[in-house]
Design goal:
Helix content: 10-25%
Distance between the termini: 64 Å
Radius of gyration: 27 Å
Number of strands: 23
Largest sheet: 7 strands, antiparallel
Shape: elongated
């Protein structure tokens, strides 16, 4: 069947006027998300474009591959996007929209070749070329990564429905196993629940990086909330016996007047009555941030981004198990503008 298909494709290539002049380019390396792609037939260069064998990269991207022998056409799909390429043609179709590739789809060693850019970009990937090492790197486009992460959002269950992110989640992909990203994750959790729109830790980290900082450095609390149509407000009324001050550290934080664990419990309970979606709790001595999401007669429950399955945990079950509730430094509450 394969031999017959290749004969049909070859015949179609002749009928369509050939695939143009192809020149080999030795030692071209192609990587996909950092891993080297192994080809049956090496990449080639035509008109300064890198053409690659379709199947190895398409399989790495998880695409389905179909052939239409009558039209000598290759069809790739991820279930949302479909691309079509015809042997001997320089036209491709992305969800029916025509694109001119500038070079024709080719046959070499009985394998189909197309420009790598037109193979990967329709599916949300981007390429970079290192001329010194002759390496073409294929990586997922940042916007596609964020969109996929939003699709994977996992919400809490049970008594306190809430968004939960763990800073070491592999699909988020923070460096150093997410160390230091607790505040980033806490904002992503709370902003998602307050706005009703999915905000990922990668969204928050991207904003920090856009301001010239590392991803885990909170570049501006008030401005960050504003980017999502929100603002940070006092978590307690000024008349509360547990209210000490608001915004003294320029983090729009609510400092608590608490001395005992009972005081801290009552203060957080009061804050959660005011803001049922949750409040960010900051413990500077560790330092660590997590989201207080609910309470019962004995405990405050937190979503702790530092531990996997860290939803609805008492303080003793979080990474702060050696601390007391009264060690809390301050809390932050967010509302829509």
């Amino acid at each position: 069947m394969k031999k017959r298909l290749m004969c049909i494709l070859a015949a179609a290539l002749v009928a369509l006027g050939g695939a143009g002049v192809i020149s080999a380019e030795g030692d071209i390396t192609v990587t996909f998300e950092g891993k080297k792609i192994l080809f049956n037939s090496s990449p080639i260069i035509e008109k300064d474009r890198t053409l690659v064998q379709i199947r190895p990269i398409a399989e790495a991207m998880g695409l389905t591959i179909e052939y239409e022998p009558f039209d000598a056409m290759v069809i790739l799909s991820d279930g949302k996007t479909e691309t079509r390429f015809s042997v001997g043609s320089d036209i491709s179709y992305v969800n029916g929209k025509k694109q001119n590739m500038g070079v024709k789809m080719a046959l070499k060693d009985d394998f189909t070749f197309i420009p790598i850019r037109y193979l990967v970009e329709p599916f949300g990937y981007e390429i970079a070329y290192n001329a010194d090492t002759k390496t073409v790197s294929v990586k997922i486009n940042k916007e596609k990564k964020l969109a996929e992460l939003r699709d994977k959002i996992r919400t809490g269950s049970g008594k306190y429905p809430s968004t939960f992110y763990c800073q070491s989640q592999e699909d988020i992909g923070f460096e150093n196993n997410g160390k230091g990203y607790c505040w980033v994750c806490s904002y992503a959790m709370l902003l998602t629940d307050v706005t009703g729109k999915t905000v990922t830790p990668a969204d928050i980290a991207d904003i920090n990086e856009s301001k010239g900082y590392s991803g885990n450095f909170m570049s501006g609390h008030s401005s960050l909330a504003g980017l999502f149509g929100c603002k940070i407000v006092p978590a307690l009324k000024e008349t509360s016996q547990y209210f000490e001050s608001f915004g003294a550290l320029n983090r729009n934080e609510t400092k608590l007047a608490v001395e005992t664990d009972e005081d801290a419990y009552n203060a957080l309970k009061e804050a959660l009555d005011n803001f049922p979606k949750g409040v960010i709790a900051r413990f500077e001595a560790y330092p660590h941030s997590m989201v207080a999401v609910g309470y019962d007669a004995e405990n405050i429950y937190f979503n702790d981004p530092a531990i996997k399955n860290g939803e609805h945990k008492t303080l003793a079950e979080t990474c702060l198990k050696n601390y007391h509730l009264s060690d809390i430094s301050y809390i932050q509450a967010i509302v829509k503008k």
